[in-house]
Amino acid sequence: MMKYCYTPRAAIYIAALVVLLFLPQLLSPYHLMLMESGLSLAIMALGLNLLLRYTGVLSFGHGAYFAAGAYAVGLLYMYLPDKFTFENAILAAILASAALSALFGFVCVRHTRIFFSILTLALSMLLFAVLEKAYHYTGGSDGIRVPIPLFFGYEFEGMRRFQFLIGPYYYVVVGIFAAATVTMLAIVNSPFGKALQGTRDNELRAEMIGIRVKRYRWYAFVISGTFCGLSGGVWSFVNGHITPEISNWVFSGEIVYMVLLGGFMIFEGPIIGALLFTYLRLYAVAITEYWMLILGATLIFLVLVLPGGVMGGLHSLFSRLKLKRVS
Amino acid sequence: MLQVTQLSKSFGQFMVLYNVNFAVKENEVVALLGPNGAGKTTMVNLISGHLRPDSGKIMLSGKDITGAPPHVRIALGIARNFQITQLFEELTVLDNVRNCIFSVEGRSGRFFKPASSYERVTAEALDILETFNLADFAGEMAEGLSEGDKKILDTAMAFALKANFLLLDEPTSGVATADKFKVMDTIITAIQERGTATLIIEHDMDIVAEYTHRVMVLSEGHILADGASAEVMADKQVKETLFGVSD
Predict the structure, then answer these.
(1) A2-326 — its CATH code?
(2) How close is the nearest chain B Cα to the Cα of A128, in Å?
(3) Which member of A189, A208, A219 has the closest CB to residue B114?
């Protein structure tokens, strides 16, 4: 096992983690909160990419599982306020999103390509309709407020929301993000991950070496959905408030956008994409009220000029430089 | 070992196989010949579970597998290659073979530990690649192989499933003529070492004569002749069917 700890990738990861842990000293509180939001969204982007890159299917409805996680936190506060602790909330987020993705995924994995994408989109809109219309149960379009929770019995008494977010909660987010990244990396390199990539490359062959294609695709869907739910749970505390918009297909499209922006062919691409997206959207909103136009234009630019995303572009640039040095 | 009784399959109006009966004994290497469209690949698809027959029965070592899904058949020891290569193109050559071993050993569902850390499985996969002269390409993507090597990898993957009944659909088509006998030598040696019963579809008569003891000729959905290679090949009707000439 030890030899896996000395790869260049491991060194970069450790360096990145150190940088993340020192960011509170380097960034303004405002930018630190943005980073926190970006890191929690990165968990979701990693989840989506398990399906897109490693299973070969594109979900346009992953907002549903993000919403399942976030609403599990919100509803826990609404209905069981005395059980509202951070650990219970995250557990609820994981369980709710796993259950929902198991149910929706069971339907979706029967198909691939455009049929899969449309099914995921349609099912997510079903959840959106419920969250928005069932006002008495979910708060409807007003959403639910998410306050600071207890942490394993510890109460942040008298601490303001803002201090909580730039203080202790930042390290919690970094910890969960790091654990999620390492877990996902392990999954894609495991025999299961390789079997998934087999089903992506050649469904017929996968079946004929004994892999149960639909079942494996379903497992991948549930893992992917659960990552989204965890992400939604973590993010709900950062945002402090949740609304049904996160289950809308527009938000699901933004998740796809993040993954494409960072580059879906490289494992770390979605992480970079989620962070970039968070800042990009903010600056676009600050510059113009037509911010959607800027995001749309960057998407067109990406698809035409940088189909591998930012990380894919960097990767090919580095390999070209290396070639030049050799010749 | 394998027993096929009254097997029929049609696609719409078109009857591909009609009441086919045959059996393959342990350690036997049987060639399946026939003109294009005779139903040879359909036969492989039926036995491997890719297609279901309209009627009839397929038994493996006394077990009825007629309606069994592919993963059950593979667990029972049936493996196949593909006439038109079917690889995991964006995985390495090593991972293509390793995926087969993980699957047949029921380990494909394992999370967390990297595939490369399973040392015994990796050694076994490298061994198979060595046997098929592909070891030099172990770390390369399957899509980068030459057409001939892709075909050999396709067959190597079938071997990795540790079958006791092997279906080989034209294992040397697409392989350079100079290499054909070398590849067949490799395949036959491996089959004999393990005592694997094998059904080979092959068009090359030299290969059939050299490597198989028994020949079955399939024509228009039924078995025209079945017997020792030399006898069957001397049959007048067989010559007409296969070569369009009577002598």
Answers:
(1) 1.10.3470
(2) 33
(3) A189
